[in-house]
Amino acid sequence: MRVDVLTREYPPDIYGGAGVHVAELVRVLRQLHPDGPGGPALDVRVRAWALAEGERDEAGTTSHPEPAELAGANAALRVLGVDLSMAAAVTGGDGAAGGSSTDLVHSHTWYANLAGHVSGLLAGVPHVVTAHSLEPLRPWKAEQLGGGYALSSWAEKTAYEGAAAVIAVSAGMRADILRCYPSLDPARVHVVHNGIDADAWSRDDSPEAHDAVRALGVDPEKPSVVFVGRTTRQKGLPHLLRAAAQLPPEVQLVLAAGAPDTPEIAAEVAGLVADLKATRSGVVLIDRMLPRTDVIRLLSAATVFVCPSVYEPLGIVNLEAMACGAAVVASATGGIPEVVADGETGWLVPIEQVQDGTGRPIDPATFEADLAAALTAATSDPAEARRRGEAGRRRAVAEFGWDAIGERTLAVYRAALAG
Questions:
Q1: Rounded to an integer, what distance in angstroms lies between the CA atom of residue 275 and that of residue 245?
Q2: Could you tell me the strand order of the sheet in which 328-331 lies?
């Protein structure tokens, strides 16, 4: 069986959870033998956006640059140009495809959804979509794309409604998909959770790790709240910064927050950080994307990891923190409650949200006060936080291993081919 995986992010160009998911999924899929032991391995071809510099040399992987003719065009239009390039490669051969034609295409995020849809139509094969987020639930993207947000929304809707199967990364995400796209047959929407490589993500309490954390401006001997994520509306960073003003003075707030979506959100976060620094010490802003080694060290040194998201289909970052033995304080939205067990692996913060697609709290002050209370409880009892962190590690290993997720994904492929 040959499967073409279509994606924007792929190593070494990964900036979010979707990219982590694709990289790990491809790795485990290539180890599967769909016809049984002794049969051929699953033939997985990856079509990814081209790197800014250099080229990928991984076998079975092809990079697709933005068409030069679209330079300077709206960002969403440039995406569709890459999508058409991918579709042409899947169906017409590009020198890397080998002999047999594809049996199934699998796209990830709206950046590649239209490539999957067009490829499926041209080749007459099933198109499987993995839903990492939904455009109707991210209206703030209009700040980035202008009219291109209508184009990205159209591309996603078209692909989802035409897909042979849709994979939701959580039950919460499945409910969102069926709410946003009610014409979808529920039988075609499957839940396959995101996973974690628990060998790659594990606690590091070494002296070298502590030295590296100090070099980042964090004191590993003092209580700390650590945030890791992109500077985007859905991550709820402004709410966290306002909640942090209510934390005990000895608690450090560590923000590994890079890749802002827009100058506006970057400026808002910078202003709130400056206001917080004017009233308390121990505020550390790392405004760049860190390598995995440094993220693991920060998570290992954290008293608690915080995920204040207003929209989160699952939240791989929570799994990463749990695998590193960090307790998690997170908003009880989307798929987060399927990962973070309240009272066992962390603290869930209730959030009542406006149902207009923005995810905004109905009462922001209440949400921020509840967030501050949970963070205070966690940092005031390091032994309890450590106990919940250890339970989180056990849960991540037992329930979110990639081998099982690869098998579940293959089962969806078989259902799509049979259907």
A1: 9
A2: 283-286, 252-258, 224-230, 304-307, 328-331, 346-349
pLDDT per residue, tens digit, the chain (419 aa), is: 999 999 999 999 988 889 989 999 999 999 999 998 889 999 999 999 998 777 788 999 999 999 999 999 999 999 999 999 999 999 885 444 444 489 999 999 999 999 999 999 999 999 999 999 899 988 878 877 788 999 999 999 999 999 999 999 999 999 999 999 999 999 999 999 989 999 999 999 999 999 999 999 999 999 999 999 989 889 999 999 999 999 999 999 999 998 788 888 999 999 999 999 999 999 999 998 899 999 999 999 999 999 999 989 888 899 999 999 999 999 999 999 999 999 999 999 999 999 887 889 999 999 999 999 999 999 999 999 999 999 999 999 998 989 989 999 999 999 999 98
* Per-residue CA distances from 17 to 9, 10, 230, 274 (Å): 10, 11, 10, 28
The helix-helix angle for 263-277 and 237-244 (nearest 10°) equals 10
Q: What pTM was estimated for this model as a whole? A: 0.79
Beta bridge partners of 168: 131, 191
Q: Which residue, among 156, 151, 66, has the nearest Cα to 114 in the 3D structure?
A: 156
- Please name the helix (run of DSSP H) or strand (run of DSSP E) that holds residue 166, with its range, or none: strand 165-168
DSSP code at position 10: B
Residues 6+ apart with CB under 8 A from 276: 241, 244, 245, 253, 283
First and final C-alpha spacing in the chain? 16
DSSP string covering 266-303: HHHHHHHHHHHHTT-S-EEEE-SPPPHHHHHHHHHH-S
